[in-house]
Structures are given as C-alpha cells and as structure tokens.
Amino acid sequence: MPGDAPVINGNILVSKHSERDLSLYKLCIFDIKLNNEHRRIKHFWFNKWSDAGCPEKPVMFFDFVKAVQKAKTPAVNGGPIVVHCGDGAGRTGIYIAVDHLLQNIRDHDDADIYQLILDMREHRCNMVQTEAQFVFIYDCLKAFVKVGHVDDGHLYQNTKLGTEPLEHTYEALNFRRNLFK
C-alpha cells in the first residue's frame, strides 16, 4: 500500500495495522472493513524465494509453514488461509503440498508426494511446475522427519519416509519426468 494510506475499493476499506520484517518473511497485518463488518488479515510473504525456483534450505521453509499454521485464528473470526504466488502454480503448489504433508504426517507413516501433486493438479493445473520443486517438497518432508519437530507437545517422527535413496523413492512413486512439462 503506497505510503501506508488506507485504500478504498467500492465499500471496502483496507488499512495497514502493522508490518514486521523478519529474517525469512515479512508479516503485514491489515484491517478490512465492509460497512459494519471488520476483519484483521495476516499477510505472510516469504521473501527468500525466486520465481520458478526453490528456497535455499528446506528447514527454513517448513519453519515458515509452521509459523503460518500457528498464526491461524479460530474459525469464528478467521477464515481459510489464502495462498498465492505470481502465477498461482509453482510456489503456491509447493506451499500447499508441504503444509498438507506436515499436517498429514501426524497420523500416517508414509506420504505419497507424487499422488498429492496429481490430486492438486485436478483442481489447478501446473501445481508444482518443475522437477526441482518436486524434489524440494520431498527434501522438506525428509528434513522434517529427520530432525523431528516439536509442536503443541507432539514430536513427529516417521521411520519409513526418507530411509531410501532419492532415486529409489522416485521409482516407488512412478516418477515421470514428463509430469513437469
């Protein structure tokens, strides 16, 4: 928002409440008003990520995903998390996949990343655009499992995922290079 001045679009007033530059991301909090309704929106911007690329380290990225998960407000005053990047496919797909997998691993001993990407592409084409992005998702989950992560008193570990060399995992997932063309 230029100069942090409130912006009016029709009946909607948007004003910036606060902004914080953190090491991995920027957090802006906006107040949205429509007539007598008011909502506070948290906008997380992971700024260590180039278009069509991948973040430097998986641990940095899943720490970002966990920060967003922790910031969710109750459904009474909140709503869904909205995820978007420049084209709404590559980086958005990585975020959604990693977020889904980190939540899913709590109750499951395995993860089918390949099938998850195919399922996501049923709803939006080109989710996860490159082989490098696919590998990055795997690396995020592998790092999460290897390190173990404490959240709300639970330690998440998995003994099956990440025990095979990467090339064997691709074979198990029937990985095809044309998936990313």
Structural description of this entry:
It holds the Pfam family Y_phosphatase. Residues 62-135 form the Tyrosine specific protein phosphatases domain. Residues 1-144 form the Tyrosine-protein phosphatase domain. The structure is a single chain. This protein is an alpha+beta fold. The protein has 2 domains: 1-47, no CATH class; 51-180, Protein-Tyrosine Phosphatase, Chain A. 35% of the residues lie in helices and 22% in strands. Strand 2 and strand 3 (25-34) form a beta hairpin. Helix 1 (58-70) crosses helix 2 and helix 2 runs parallel beside helix 4 (131-147). The longest helix has 17 residues, at 131-147. It is elongated, with a radius of gyration of 18 Å.
Labels describing this entry:
four-stranded antiparallel sheet; 5 helices; two-stranded antiparallel ribbon; 181 residues; 2 domains; Protein-Tyrosine Phosphatase, Chain A; alpha+beta; disordered C terminus
